[in-house]
Amino acid sequence: MRDINKDEYTLISRYITDLSGIVIPPEKNYLIETRLYRLILEYGVESFNEFYAKVLLPGDPQADQKIINAITVNETLWFRDAVLWKCLEREILPGLIDKLISGEKAKVRFWSAAASTGQEAYSIAMCIDNYLKRNRILDISLSDFEIFATDISDRVLDIATAGKYDRISMTRGITDHYKAAYFKNTGSVWNLDPEIKKAVKFHCFNLKNSYTDFGKFDVIFCRYVLIYFPVELKTDVIARMRESLSHNGVLFTGNYVLYDLLRDVFVAKEYGNLTYYTKPAFFNGSQDSY
Question: Are 189 and 165 in contact (CB under 8 A)?
Answer without folding.
Answer: yes
